[in-house]
Design a protein that fits this description.
- The protein has 16 helices and 8 strands.
- With about 350 residues, the chain is an alpha/beta fold.
- It has 2 domains: about 160 residues, Rossmann fold, CATH 3.40.50.1970; about 140 residues, Dehydroquinate synthase-like, alpha domain.
- Bound molecules: zinc ion.
- Zinc ion binds next to helix 11.
Length: about 350
């Protein structure tokens, strides 16, 4: 199953101008602009969750002048949608957006991403995160034709979701540097244009993490993955460690990837693949009250070591080169680095 999915993710580089989402609207009251997009369709289906439905169903229907069929995002399995459905609106957090992606793939119809939180870079990507038999993996779907990010809605989301979204961008310090390393030493495909897109998304959030910049950076990262037809530009060892942490269902994706980032940057700095210092990333995280220590994460050092071993096995299976593999680090090196970085 996993191998089949991975094969589908390979690989003809696309052109920036041909890549969805072609319509991106980030503003207050953006939801009302959804009707311009829905004008070409007759039977919209809106995938959401109970909380968002209760809070915003009326707002969506009033501001767009449409009454879509509503379905609630399931935990794991896929929903049935009405036969005549011709467009899907993913309206909610990660689960609703992922379900919309999966349904759009299943029924071969378009979908629009309407995130209600800025918690991760999947809001514009064509990859859904799927849990099967307790393991999380990525499933290639379709890119959204549009992203409608209504600041009035997104700013109401819990603060922790915004921190997670920030984490899923600052981790690009690690993923981008490792991608270059993997290209040089493991012949992994590298695309300059995609690298630059993610790098400028990262820089914009390091400079200014207001909500608009964060959402734009998440959309650009999603677009970069669509262009590369791979999550590699946005996902390195720090992501694999987070996926290993998911075995215990610990924390939000962006919080976990950010937690693993200073460690990865520490090793990437040793091989001169990044100009960033782990200490600067940690300071940025500390300023935003993001977890930095095992204690903050309610994690033991032994669990973290086990997660790293598991992460390297995941990367090995996916033929992705890790800086930890490159440096042949062992437990002693990792423990020493964690001590130096005050994990
Ligand atoms: Zn991520």
């Amino acid at each position: 199953m996993l191998n089949k999915e991975l094969q589908e993710i390979k690989r003809e580089p696309k052109k920036m101008s041909d890549t969805d989402p072609r319509i991106v609207i980030i503003e207050r009251g953006a939801l009302s602009r959804l009707c311009d997009i829905l004008g070409d369709y007759t039977n919209p289906v809106c995938v959401s969750d109970e909380l968002i439905y209760t809070k915003y169903q009326q707002y969506l229907e009033d501001s767009t002048g449409t009454c879509p069929a509503w379905i609630m995002a399931p935990n794991n399995s896929q929903e049935e949608i009405p036969k005549q459905a011709d467009i899907i609106i993913g309206f909610g957090g990660g689960r609703s957006i992922d379900t919309a992606k999966l349904l759009a793939r299943e029924y071969s119809i378009d979908w629009v991403s309407v995130p209600t939180a800025a918690s991760h870079d999947g809001i514009a990507s064509d990859v859904a995160s799927v849990i099967q038999n307790g393991y999380r993996y990525s499933k290639k779907c379709k890119s959204p034709i549009a992203v409608i990010a209504d600041i009035d809605i997104i700013e109401q989301a819990p603060t922790i979701l915004r921190k997670a979204g920030t984490g899923d961008i600052i981790c690009k310090v690690s993923s981008l540097a490792e991608w270059k390393l993997a290209h040089d030493h493991n012949d992994e495909e590298f695309l300059e244009e995609v690298y630059n897109l993610v790098e400028s998304a990262l820089q914009s959030v390091l400079r200014n993490d207001d909500l608009e910049s964060l959402i734009q950076a998440e959309i650009d990262s999603g677009k970069a993955m669509n262009l590369a037809q791979s999550s590699r530009p946005c996902s390195g060892t720090e992501h694999a460690i987070s996926h290993a942490m998911d075995r215990r269902n610990q924390n939000l994706h962006g919080i976990q990837v950010a937690f693993a980032t200073p460690l990865c940057v520490h090793f990437l700095k040793q091989v001169d693949y990044t100009k960033h210092r782990p200490i600067d990333i940690q300071e940025y995280m500390r300023d935003r009250d993001m977890p930095l220590t095992f204690e903050d994460m309610k994690l033991t050092r032994e669990q973290f070591l086990d997660d790293i071993h598991h992460a390297l096995r995941i990367m090995g299976k996916r033929k992705r080169y890790s800086v930890l593999e490159h440096l042949n680090v062992d437990d002693t090196d990792i423990i020493k680095a964690c001590q130096e970085l005050n994990y």
